[in-house]
Design goal:
two-stranded antiparallel sheet, globular, single chain, 203 residues, mainly beta
Length: 203
């Protein structure tokens, strides 16, 4: 519930016969200090393996000090072991891109490994191990249960910040609407909302 910690994200995906293209934009912070980024992504299914790469433009702005920017990339892959079990890896900024003309600050190198299991059509469990440069290992674990095809709920935990999160959502005429909240031991409750529209959805 702090304005300084506000975060907004927008993503658009376009599937084609030559692969899938995506655009992503992020903004976090406030007028005094904020970070923005924009990314262009490409992904393709290679049968049992899905692979994607994204190129990003990152900018940080501090009131009274100006702004600095950098260009980097990230990549990831998912291996579908079978219809129920998937595993994947993701790396962010593996080349160690720096921010600003004088390269004063380096963006962190982050890599992660995850597992996902569809226990049934209604129940999914996922886990991720994430390591950010110069930071302790973070484990994320989440569960999602669908009461029916159009109504579901989920819960999870992030070990690095000892934060819990929960959410509920539903599908309606091609829209997915989620209401979420995370609970941090110091910062308290942070509400969130997710809105997804699938232009090809059919009811």
């Amino acid at each position: 519930m702090l304005a300084e910690l506000s975060c907004y994200q927008l993503a658009v995906a376009l599937p084609t016969s030559s692969g899938n293209f995506g655009l992503q934009a992020n903004y976090s912070g406030n007028a005094g200090f904020n970070e923005t980024s924009a990314g262009l992504a490409y992904a393709r299914s290679l049968g049992q393996v899905d692979f994607g790469v994204q190129f990003n433009y990152y900018q940080v702005k501090i009131a009274g000090y100006g702004n600095a920017s950098a260009v980097n990339f990230e990549a990831g892959g998912i291996l579908h072991i079978n219809e129920q079990f998937q595993t994947g890896v993701h790396v962010y900024n593996p080349t160690g891109a720096h921010v600003g003309k004088a390269n004063e600050e380096q963006l962190p190198f982050v890599y992660s490994f995850g597992l996902g299991y569809d226990a049934s059509e209604k129940f999914f469990i996922g886990a991720e191990i994430q390591k950010e440069e110069d930071q302790p290992v973070n484990a994320n674990i989440g569960l999602q249960y669908a009461f029916e095809k159009k109504l579901f709920t989920r819960v999870g935990i992030s070990s690095a910040t000892a934060s819990f999160y929960l959410g509920t959502g539903f599908l309606w005429n091609g829209f997915r609407i989620d209401v979420t909240a995370s609970i941090h031991p110091t910062l308290g409750v942070t509400p969130g909302m997710l809105l997804v529209y699938n232009a090809t959805a059919k009811n």
